[in-house]
What does this fold into?
Amino acid sequence: MLILTIESSCDETSAAIVRDGRCVLSNIIASQVDIHACYGGVVPELAARKHLESCPVVIDQALQVAGVTLQDIEGIAVTAGPGLIGALLVGLSAAKALAFALEIPLVGIHHIEGHILAPFLETTANISSGTQQLQFPYLALAVSGGHTHLFRVDGIGAYELIGQTLDDAAGEAFDKVAKMAGLTYPGGALIDKLAQSGDPCYFNFPRPMLHRPGFDFSFSGIKTAVLNQIKKLDQPLEGELLTHLAASFQEAVVDVLSRKAFKAAKEHQLSQIVVAGGVACNSGLRHRFSQLSLSTEIDVFFPEPILCADNAAMLAVAGDYYLTRGLTSPLELNARANWPLAKVTGPLQGQC
Ligand code: KG4
Ligand code: ZN
It folds into this structure.
């Protein structure tokens, strides 16, 4: 089945054309980062207005790059939530209008469902620590600007929540620490770059919840510890000192995420871990998970970076699965700002 997918949950407008839920023919992403950087975070109304401009453009480009026309499209999958409501409504309205006009089925997909199924897409650059193909069941760590969640994934539409952050998401902590250090928004990738030349043991930041039972996380304590450390410095936060701060902060986050994820996988007898979402681009996180994979029987799967950040192609795995089984959403489909993934058992239906 040839499907068009549309993602607009936050500050990236994206459209993709994917065949059979596996083969990515195009995956166009228009980032709004320049618009929001000067505000230090995403401004919801500006995001929605920019999606309105970018949506037709990315859809046109996705068709062109894939070498297909709208008449070739057999179904549409769109992010229906969670996310910024105004932003979601733009992509959803575009998807509904096209589905109606082309008389093809529509399905609303959960944003995190898209992220944690992304390693099934066939691209040359998806990273796996072993030679095995990814199979159900597996443990998924969804780490993004809005989520830090551990799920047991038994199949498409079968997600059990194992743990989650009790306060900030890991990406949010990266962005806030970057802001404290005078870096621009979003700061995750900048911290990652600085950390590569810093000493991860220079500052000793806490590892909250690490030794508590269960698999929940907390990142606000690490963030506060970084703020207190910055206030105590008797020299400007720049040069080598800035790299040490970035490396020590990143080390604390990576330590907590990796140790909890491997413990959860062992306890739930899962031999595969998928790490997905924007923070899965982090080089320190990728390195640590790969190292731990070598010393355990657990294989680790990272989507390639373009499929970790927000993108439309990732919606195609669940989208194609549902559409080919006739599991569709009605044209009255509404967007959901809040939508727990563990409640997803199929396509979103109607009103929120
Ligand atoms: O999944 P995503 O693109 O959007 C959301 O659904 O939130 O994730 C964005 C988050 C931001 O917080 C960003 O700073 C973070 O992912 N991020 C990173 C890196 N690249 C993006 N965090 C750490 N290291 C990176 N290399
Ligand atoms: Zn995301």
Observations:
- The chain has two domains: 2-117+308-343, 124-302.
